[in-house]
Amino acid sequence: MTPGRISAFFANMVRSLSRRAIAALGRFPVAALALVALCIVANLEHLRSALFEADMLARVAAALFAGALANVWGRLIGESRGRTDLGAGLLAAAGGVAAALLVYAAPAISLSAVPCVAALALGLTLAPYLERGDSLRFWTFTLGAVVGGTVGFLAVILFVSGVWAILAMVETLFGFGLPSGAFDHIFITAFTFVGPLFALGRIPTRFDETVRPGEGERLPAALSALVDYVAAPLLLVTALVLHAYGLRILATGELPANQIGWIVPSFCATVLLVRVGAHPFFDEGAVGATRVLRRVWSFMLVLPLGLLAYALALRIGMEGLTAQRYYGVLGACAVALVLLMQAMPRLAGDIRLMVGLPLALLALSSAGPLGYAASVGRSQALRVEALLTARETNPPAAWRAEMGSRLRSLEDVDGLDRLIPVLDPATRAAFEAAPRGSEVEVLVTRLGAGEAPPEVRRVLTDTQTSSLDLDGYDRVVPALDLKPGMPIRIPGQGPDGASLTMAIDRADIVLTSASREERFALAAALADAPAGEHPAGALTRDLRSPSGRRIRLAVQRYEGAGRPERILSLSATLLYRSADWRVR
After folding, report:
1. Sign of the C-alpha dihedral computed for residues 152, 157, 162 and 163 taken in this order
2. What's the alpha-carbon Rg for the chain, to the nearest Å?
C-alpha cells in the first residue's frame, strides 16, 4: 500500500469516526457525558493509582455505565414512538441521571448493581419494541446494532493500534516520542470513550426495517449457512448426548455429576440464542438440520431442564443457596417460562419474549426479598446457625471447611450482619469492632472455622537397653511395635495355649483374650515424662486396668500427639501374668 493510500485510509477513518461520534453526541447527550466522565475517572485512576478505593471505583464506573445505558433506553423508546422533541429528550436524560444515582447508592438501598446493569446492557435493543413491532423487526434492528457496534469497536482498535505503531516507529527511528505512560492513556481513552461513543453512533435510527433471507443480503445468507451446517447439527447431537445421560440417571438412580450445574444452563442458553439468532431462517426456508431443530427445539429442553432441577435440589439441600445456584434456579425458571410460552398460540415464537423474560428475571434479582443478595443471605445464615448448633469442642476438618465456605458465601452478598443475633457476646463484639473488609476473617477465627492448629507431637526414647525385673510376671514379649489400627496377635502365651491381641485405642493400650478385654492408660502414665531421651529403665511403667489386672511395659520409643494426647506409635517390651488371662 502506497503512502498516499495509507493517508487516505486514515483520513477516511477519522472522518467516519468524527461523523458517528457527532451523531451519538446529538442523539444520546447524557450517555456521551457519562462516557466522558468514565474516561476521565479511568485515566485519573491510572495516573494516580490510589485516587479511589477499589469498591468506590467499581461503584463510580457502574453508576456512569448504568446512566449511559438508561439514557439510550429512554431515547430509543421515545424515537420508536415518534417522540424526538425536547420533552422526550429531557425525560430520557432524567432517566439516565436517576439510574446513575440508584446504582451509585446500591449498597445503601440493598441493590445489587451487577445484575441490574447487565440486564440494561443485554436488553438494549429491546427498548424500541416494548409493546410494539414484531419479532422480525426486532431481529433486524438487533442485527444492525450488533454489527454496527462490532464494526465500530474494531475500527477504533485498528485506528488506535495504528497510531501506537506510528508513534513507536517514530521513537525507534528518530529517538523521541511520547512518554511510555501515554500509550496506556491512549488505549484507556479508546476503550472507555471513543469505542463506546462510536458504537452508539452506529445504533440504527429506523425501527420498521426487515431483512429476510434470499433478498440479496450477504450477512443474512452467511448467518443462514452457519445455522444450517454448524449450529443446528451440533445442537441436535448435544441434545442426544444429554438425553442419553438423563435416561441413564433415570435407569440407574445415580446422582447427577457436579458439572450438570454449568453444562445444562450453557446448553439451554445456546439453544435459545440460536433460536433467536436464526428466527428468519426458522420461519422461512428452513432446510436439513435447521428444519428438524425448528420442530424439536422446545421439546429437547424439557429433560435437561428436569435434570438441572434435580441436581440443583440436591446441591441446595446439602449446602444451601449460593450465588451460582441462585442463578441456576433463575435460569431454569426463565427457560421454563419460555417453554410455557410456546404452548400459547399468540406468544409462541415471539423472540422478544425469549430475550425479555430472562432479562426481566435478571433485573428482578438485583433487589427485593427474592433477589440474589436476600435469598442467598437467608439461606446461608440458616446453614451457619445449624452448624453453630452442631459445633463440637474440637470441630473436625469437615465442619471447619463447611463453616468457612458458608461464611464466605455470606460475605459475597454482604450478609454477615445476619449472623449478629446468633453470635455469642464476645464474638459479636469482635465482629463489630473488626476493620472493614476483615469481618469474615474475624468470624472464621472466632468460630473455629480456620485451619486446625498443628498437633504438638511428643517423642520419648530410652537411651539403652536395660535388664527387666520380672517381679512376679511370668511372661515376656519383647520387641513389640504398635501403631493405631494395626493390632498384634501374641499366640499361645498362656498356660492353656490362650492367645492375646494387643492394640492401641487413642490413649490406651488394649489387651484382649478370648474371655476378656482390658484397658491400660499408657498416655496418662507417661504424661510426666518430658519429650526427648531418657535414661535406661526410666520409661518402664506398671499399669493397672479398671478391673485390677496388671502389666508392665518397658518403653523403648513412644510418640504421641494432640490434646488430649493420643498414641501414634509404641515400641516396647510387655510383661504380664499368664494366670490373669487363663480361659475359664
Report:
1. positive
2. 37
- State the DSSP string of 104-120: HTGGGGT--HHHHHHHH
168: left (phi over 0), alpha (psi -120 to 50) or beta: alpha
Strand pairing category for 532-534 and 517-520: unpaired
> What residues form DSSP beta bridges with 462?
534
- The whole-angstrom separation of Cα 59 and Cα 132 is 34
* Helix H or strand E encompassing 446: helix 439-446
| pTM of the predicted structure, to 2 decimals | 0.73
Q: What is the DSSP string of 54-73?
A: HHHHHHHHHHHHHHHHHHHH
Weakest-pLDDT range from 5-19, 100-114, 199-213, 308-322: 5-19
For residue 507, give the nearest of 526, 488, 528 by alpha carbon.
Answer: 526
Grid coordinates belonging to 539? 520409661
pLDDT at 256 over 80: no
Is the distance from CB of 25 to CB of 196 less than 8 angstroms? Answer: no
Distance, CA of 378 to CA of 457 (rounded, Å): 42
8-state DSSP, 420: G
Q: Is 43 exposed, middle or buried (0-12, 13-18, 19+ CB in 10 A)?
A: middle
Max CA separation in the chain (angstroms): 115
CA 124, CA 28: separation in Å to the nearest integer?
A: 13
Question: Taking the CB of residue 484, how many other CB atoms lie within 10 A of it?
Answer: 14
- In Å, how far are 350, 369, 377, 410, 564 from 319, measured between CA atoms? 38, 20, 13, 12, 32
Strands 500-505 and 488-490: antiparallel
Tell me the pLDDT of the chain averaged across its residues: 84
First to last CA, the chain: 109
* Residue 52 or 364, more confident: 364
Q: Are 306 and 250 in contact (CB under 8 A)?
A: no
| Residue 457, φ and ψ in degrees, nearest 5 | -95, 145
Instruction: Output the nine-digit C-alpha cell for 324.
Output: 451460582
Beta-carbon neighbour count of residue 580 at 10 Å? 19
Residue with cell 516520542: 177
Residues with Cβ within 8 Å of residue 339, at least 6 apart in sequence = 298, 301, 302, 305
Nearest to 519 by CA among 567, 463, 462: 567
CB atoms within 10 A of CB 152: 25
d(CA 533, CA 555) in angstroms, rounded, equals: 12
C-alpha dihedral sign at 97, 103, 105, 109: positive
Residue 141's closest CA among 366, 385, 351, 427?
351
Query: Taking 60 as the threshold, does the pLDDT of residue 493 lie above it?
Result: no
User: Are 534 and 463 contacting, i.e. CB atoms less than 8 angstroms apart?
Assistant: yes
Which residues, 6 or more positions from 206, have their beta carbon under 8 angstroms from its beta carbon?
A: none
Closest-CA residue to 375 (of 409, 337, 400): 409
